[in-house]
């Protein structure tokens, strides 16, 4: 089996920027990437969980 060295880059963006970032990847001929949803988290506005309308504060 032949292996290849790769680099992993993680980019966190708001959903409205997704199309622009993907278009840029395409223009740069990025050969592989994944888009993952954020299901829960905690930040300066407190904890939240993903819902149909976005994130709601965890209580």
Automatic annotation (TrEMBL):
<dbReference type="InterPro" id="IPR011322">
    <property type="entry name" value="N-reg_PII-like_a/b"/>
</dbReference>
<protein>
    <submittedName>
        <fullName>Uncharacterized protein</fullName>
    </submittedName>
</protein>
<dbReference type="InterPro" id="IPR015867">
    <property type="entry name" value="N-reg_PII/ATP_PRibTrfase_C"/>
</dbReference>
